[in-house]
Structures are given as structure tokens and as C-alpha cells.
Design brief:
The complex is a heterodimer of chains A (about 325) and B (about 200).
Chain A: E1 11-13, H1 18-28, E2 32-35, H2 41-46, E3 54-57, E4 67-70, E5 73-77, H3 82-87, H4 89-94, H5 96-103, H6 108-113, H7 116-121, H8 127-130, H9 171-177, E6 181-186, E7 189-194, H10 195-198, E8 217-223, E9 231-237, E10 248-257, E11 260-269, E12 276-277, H11 279-285, H12 292-298, H13 315-328
Parallel strand pairs in A: 1-3, 2-3
Antiparallel strand pairs in A: 4-5, 5-8, 6-7, 6-8, 9-10, 10-11, 11-12
Chain B: H1 7-22, H2 24-32, E1 44-49, E2 52-57, H3 64-71, E3 90-93, E4 96-99, E5 112-114, H4 128-135, H5 145-158, H6 164-170, H7 181-195
Parallel strand pairs in B: 1-5
Antiparallel strand pairs in B: 1-2, 3-4, 3-5
Helix pairs in contact in B: 1-2, 4-7
Classes of the chains: A alpha+beta (about 325), B alpha+beta (about 200).
The structure holds flavin-adenine dinucleotide, iron/sulfur cluster and FE2/S2 (inorganic) cluster (2 copies).
Flavin-adenine dinucleotide (FAD) sits at the interface of chains A and B.
Chain lengths: ~325, ~200
Amino acid sequence: MPSHDVMPDMELYQPLQVEDAVALADRLGSRAWLLGGGQDTYGWLKDRAKTTEAMIDLNGIESLRGVRETADGIEIGALTTLTEVATNTLINERYGLLSSAAGRVASPQIRNAGTLGGNVSQDVRCWYYRRGLDCYRAGGNLCYADTPEGMNREHAIFGASRCVAVNPSDTAPALVALEASMVLTSVDGERIVAAEDYFVGPAIDIENTTALRTGEILTAVRIPSTWANATFYFEKVADRNVWDFALVSMAVAMKMNGSTIEDSRFVCGAVECKPRRLTEVENAVRGRNRDESTAASIAELASRGARVLAHNQYKVPLMDSLVKRALQSA
Amino acid sequence: MNPKITRRRFIKGVIFSATAATSGAGYYIATAASSRSAGAVERLISLSVNGRTRRVDVLPQETLAHTIRYRLNLTGTKLACNRGECGACTVMIDDVANYSCSLLTHQVKGREITTVEGLRAANGSLHPVQQAFIEELAPQCGFCTPGQVVAAAALLIANPNPSREQARQGLSGNLCRCGAYDHYLNGVMRAAELIS
Ligand SMILES: Cc1cc2nc3c(=O)[nH]c(=O)nc-3n(C[C@H](O)[C@H](O)[C@H](O)COP(=O)(O)OP(=O)(O)OC[C@H]3O[C@@H](n4cnc5c(N)ncnc54)[C@H](O)[C@@H]3O)c2cc1C
Ligand code: SF4
Ligand code: FES
Ligand code: FES
């Protein structure tokens, strides 16, 4: 598809303080686009599939970078790069699930620029939409992917409502598994939203992947101590190990007592427009051993209720297999 | 938060870019004529490139690849995909590898930018990575080479003694259409020896 060397003209604002950024976001409203690492943003603008009059570049705000210990866990500034999230010792030691997920995003260079805030707030990757077609998600009244001839190999098997795109973020399932919460800041103050509610499907909002409102900035991600040092499993299946988005991913946190699973969180990525929590699997494995027989017993529980499109049937066995592997690989 | 595309805006965007594509000069005039609101960035900025401070007039929406190639004439940095999917445009920002096609120049004010031209020593001798790539016959057609060189140099700054697997990971953001990956890896391993 055509791409252009240069993006269209826009105003660029580079605030240095959160207060100034929030005031700008309030003043400019829907005229402005928030800019983290820009790794999702620039494609839209270069392709002219979306445009913006103004850009609020958050990169100069030092207070939004880095990892801090809190009374109950850690807080990660939204502008922290994915490389930092993948390599930070505090995160590695306690929340290795998030390090693994962040380390699988795109490529080293994209992780060096891309931010955690941008990763969880990124738009869907449906090519019809990204090409600039006026489908449901773009405010139109049809879906190009959900047709017999549509290219829907990467699309959803759950939670579709007119739109069948999936949330492409690799860190999102990990954050839902870790019961993280998002700190959203606006001129009216802070609003804390559980990661599970931050990501929204098309039935709630067909034009946005998150609960972020105009004028709000995601300033931090908080991870409670609930799942710190738990037993983790992360796997992302993609066509290539670099650059490609997940076809299906699985983020699992388990609290073990010996070989018994006392409690767990199983969250699946790339099968729905939000990370899909597998509560039935969690209930089924509670109190059981992490072994082959438990893996076999839950069989096709994970994918129950899936509605496949013409070209994504493979996601059903893939999802079930990843749950099994999480239970086998002790 | 993202403003959604409207049909009118989309068409306007396409028309605008069509004029930009036909004439580089037209494009500069078109943007230079537009007015800016208070608080938006100053266009004339200082950049630190390969150890020198350069004053440049940079559009707010300009990518670093564009600035270094077309304003500073440092054409060693290649632009291929222009969308973060190949690595040909790799430069270092404060010693860290980045895709210059996917960074706004205005974001790197005050930071140290190193392009492939800035890697050789003050006396003109080649960087160990360049030397090792020659010795290992790493490049084939050579188009991806500047990006591979910079990515390898950045890797060796962060990890001067990588395992082959770490080197593979370190260079995994650089595509080579000729498939000379193993030769480049041999080059990185040899460069690590040259450095130590
Ligand atoms: C070639 C390629 C491959 C990719 N592969 C993957 C992959 O494998 N896995 C994956 O997860 N992603 C992938 N991505 C998508 C994306 O680039 C990265 O996920 C990256 O982390 C996005 O972060 P960013 O900071 O660069 O986002 P930006 O482009 O800066 O922002 C993305 C969106 O989030 C909004 N936003 C950013 N920061 C904030 C904030 N603090 N508050 C509120 N809103 C905010 C922006 O307005 C924008 O809408 C890929 C992208 C490319 C180009
Ligand atoms: S899947 Fe969603 S984004 Fe893709 S064409 Fe259909 S409505 Fe648009
Ligand atoms: S030109 Fe920048 S990654 Fe391809
Ligand atoms: S040597 Fe030809 S593209 Fe890499």
C-alpha cells in the first residue's frame, strides 16, 4: 500500500510536565493525538489513513518514565520503553510474565522507542481498517473482514460485534493476568481503571480499543503484589519471531503450593478485541496438580464458545494447545 | 483519543500528499506557509550528529531519517520500508539502536545521534564492526549493511561480549533481503574479538 516519506503537516507540542500535557489534552480535545514512542502512530499518518491537526509528544516528561516500588507492588511510568520493561530487574524478579511479554513485541529497535503506555493503547491491526476503508470501526457501516472472501486469518474468534478485529498488544494479556490497574490523568484528576476494564471490545466501543476518554492521559500502570513471584508462563505464536503480531498468545500466572495450583490467571491474547480471561480454565485447574493429566482433563475448555471466521479456525486448537503447554511445562 | 478519519479528511490527505510527491519544493513551501499556534515547537533546532552540532530547520512532523538524509546529506542511512519493518534506517540515539524512519527529529533534540558515517575513529580507521564485516564478507548486495553495522555497533556497546544467540537477537530487527544473516553474525562475533 502507498506510504509517503513525509507525514502531513501538524502542530507539535512537547510538554515537560504532566500538568502541562493534561492541560494541552484538555484544551486541544479531539484535535490532538497523544504521542508515546510513535511506533503505532506514524504508520497511520504516513499512510494518510488517519490524520491529526496536533500532536502532544509525551516523551519529554521525565516523571512518566521508570519503575518505582510502591507500598503494594510496583508502578511503571507510561512512557517507560518496552526495552526497559523487558530488562528492568524489579520487573524481571517479581513479574517475569510482563518482561517476557514486553520482550516479544515487534523488534529490538521498536522496543527501544515504543512505550508501555503506547503498547496497551495501540489500535487494532485489521488491514482493511488500517488501509483507511470506512468500515464499522472507522465510523462506517460494514465490515470487510467478516465476509466469506475477507482476509480474516488474524481476526477474532470471540466477542465480535460487527467488528472482528483483535487487540494486538503483547503486554495487555500479561497485565490483565497480573491484575494491573491503569492510572488515567486529566484536568479533573486521576481515575484508576483495572486492566481488565481498560481494554474494551466493539460491543462497548467500536471505535476505540481502550476506555481512555478524550482529554485523559495514561500516566502509569500499577501492578499489585498479588501475583508477585508467582509461577509464570508466557507464549506468543506468530508467523515470524520478530515484527509479527501474535496469532494467539497466552499469559499465565499460577500460585503453587508444591505441585498444586492454588489459584491462577489464564489470559489469552489475539483471539478477541480485548485480552480474554479464561475463568473456566482457572476454576477447573484450581486445587489440581500442574501436570499432564490436568492438562488433558481441561481439553477444549479454553476455546468453548468460539465463533470462527472463514480463515481463522486454526486459532481454536492453538488456544487449547497453549493452555495445555502452560500446564505441562513445569 | 485518536481522531477518527472522516472521508473528507482522507481525501484531503491524499490530495495533499500527491502534490508533495510531485515536487519536493512544493512540499516545503506548502508547509512553511502554514501558521502555528502558540506553544507548538520552534522549527530551527540544534542537533548533535556524529559529535558535531548542526543547526537545522525541521518540520514538526519530520522523521529523523528524512532530516539526516535530505537536510544533512548523510545518505549512509538508508530508507527502505519507512515503517519500522526492515532496519535499513537504523541509527543510534545515545548509543541505543533506533529506526530513524520511526522517530520525529524533534524528539531527539539534545541527544547524541550517531549514523553509520560517525562510526569510524578520529584517525579515519574503520570501526571494528566495519572491519570485521569486511573480513567476514558479511554484506552481499550491501543495501542493508549500514543498518546492520549500526545495530551491531549498538549491540556491542550494550554487550561487548555477546553469545552468538545474543548477537542474533541483537540484530533481529534488521532484515537482509539477500539472506546474509549468518555472515553478519560471523562479523559481529569477530568484531567482539577485535574489541576485546
Ligand atoms: C513493524 C511493527 C511491528 C509491531 N509488532 C508488534 C508486536 O509484535 N506486538 C505488539 O504488541 N505491538 C507491535 N507493534 C505495535 C506498536 O508499535 C508497539 O506495540 C508499540 O509498543 C507502541 O507503543 P508506542 O509508544 O510507540 O505507541 P504510540 O504510537 O506512541 O501510541 C499508540 C497509541 O496509544 C496512544 N498513546 C500512547 N501513549 C499514551 C498515553 N500515555 N496515554 C494515552 N494514550 C497513549 C496514542 O495516542 C496512540 O493512539 C508493532 C508495530 C510495528 C510498526
Ligand atoms: S474487522 Fe473491524 S476494523 Fe476490520 S474491517 Fe471489520 S469493522 Fe473494520
Ligand atoms: S526504513 Fe526504517 S525500518 Fe525500514
Ligand atoms: S546484503 Fe543485500 S539486503 Fe542484506
